[in-house]
Amino acid sequence: MKKNENRRESIRSGKLITEIILSALIIGFIGYKASKIFTDFSKVDQASLNIQTETTEPTTEEDKNKVIYETAETMTKSKFIGSLILVNGDFKYYSSADDSNLVSINAQNKAQKRSSFSAATDAMEINADVYTALAAMLDDFHEETGLKVVISSGFRSFQKQEELYNADLKATGLDYSESVAKPGHSEHQTGLSVDFKDFDGEGDYAWINENAWRYGFILRYPENKTSVTNIKFEPWHFRYVGVPHAYYMHTNNLCLEEYAELLIKHSYDGEHLFFSDSNGTEYEIYFVQSDDGSDVTFVPVPSGMKYEIQGNNSSGFIVTVYVAQSPEPSSVSSEDATEDVEETNAP
Q: Do 32 and 161 lie in a common domain?
């Protein structure tokens, strides 16, 4: 009997040990599985984090065609000078001969041995840049036609303009003039305009009207724009504005008043004016309002490109950009005016 009890006790002890071992194995297996699942979850979670990091990382690519602008310090009062200033009955010319960079026409012709044109008097002067462009145009005109042009009027002083204006009032008996601009409101005071003697723009002389824009000139008072300019048709009066602007005005049939108004609408902060001339030269043009509360206006200009800043004689500056052209150093010579000018044409 006792032997059987010992045997049963041995069996119970064996079962207990077996159960303990099985329990340990089960717990170990469960722990292993749980650990593996956690490890896999961590890997997946980390992978998802890595993916999120990669997709949210900012990528930027430099635009090589983007134009970088810098600022050019420009004297605010210089808005009253330049080849684009509008001078008429509404806008007075505020500068003087000191700002006009004047040279004697005949003296320049003599120095350069030029005989394709001449001035009516040795005292007659115009802006130096205008002389250069005018000489190129009239040299080509003479070569093309064999004809020579005489300049009957160039720069006029305020006093000379006043004499012409008062003489016209006396002759007509009116209290205003239809053919002579008021003193202070004549383009001739800028040195940017010339009158041709006995010139009607017809026949062989039509060459000048057709090609003037190529040299930066416009017919200032066209026959079909008298209601805008308030000046009667003057076929002899030409004004220098520069090639880009002369081309655009010629192509789009605009007088200077219309063009000046158009340019103001193309502000720096808005849509710029883009066009190419017949030679394929590309231009970008925009307007910058002057800072009238300061002596200096900061004008935005493109870095690394050739540009010009011109005043419009009223509200600010016109920036002309020669697209894809590098800046060029430029210098302008001038001579002091010492003689009064005797002239015949108006305004």
A: no
Residue 335 lies in a domain: no
pLDDT, one tens digit per residue, over 259-288 is 999 999 999 999 999 999 999 999 999 999
Residue 116 and residue 253 in one domain? yes
For residue 171, is it within any domain?
yes
Using DSSP bridges, classify how beta strands 234-240 and 193-196 pair: parallel, antiparallel or unpaired.
antiparallel
Q: What range does the domain containing 23 cover? A: 1-52
Q: In terms of C-beta distances under 8 Å and separation of at least 24 residues, what long-range contacts does 245-254 make, across chains too? A: 245/83, 245/84, 245/216, 245/320, 246/212, 246/213, 246/214, 246/215, 246/216, 246/217, 246/218, 247/213, 247/214, 247/277, 247/278, 248/273, 248/275, 249/213, 249/218, 250/212, 250/213, 250/218, 253/224
Residues 317-323 have a mean pLDDT of: 97
Count CA atoms within 13 Å of residue 69 on its CB side: 11
Q: What is the pLDDT of residues 119-160, one digit of tens each?
A: 999 999 999 999 999 999 999 999 999 999 999 999 999 999
d(CA 315, CA 67): 26
The verdict on whether 54 is a catalytic residue reads no
Residue 210: is its pLDDT beyond 70? Answer: yes
Residues 25 and 127 in one domain: no
Identify the H or E element spanning 44: helix 2-56
User: What are the structure tokens assigned to 136, written together?
Assistant: 């190129």
Q: What is the CATH number of the domain that holds 142?
A: 3.30.1380.10
pLDDT per residue as tens digits for the range 46-71:
444 343 434 445 555 656 567 899 99
Report field, pTM of the whole predicted structure over 0.90: no
- Catalytic one among 125, 234, 308, 343? 234
Asked if residue 330 is part of any domain, the answer here is no
| pLDDT tens column, 161-194 | 999 999 999 999 998 887 889 999 999 999 999 9
As for how many domains the chain has, the answer is 2
Q: What phi and psi values does residue 251 have, to the nearest 5 degrees?
A: -70, -35
Which residues contact residue 247 at a Cβ distance below 8 angstroms, ignoring those fewer than 6 apart? 213, 214, 277, 278
- Write out pLDDT tens, residues 191-203: 999 999 999 999 9
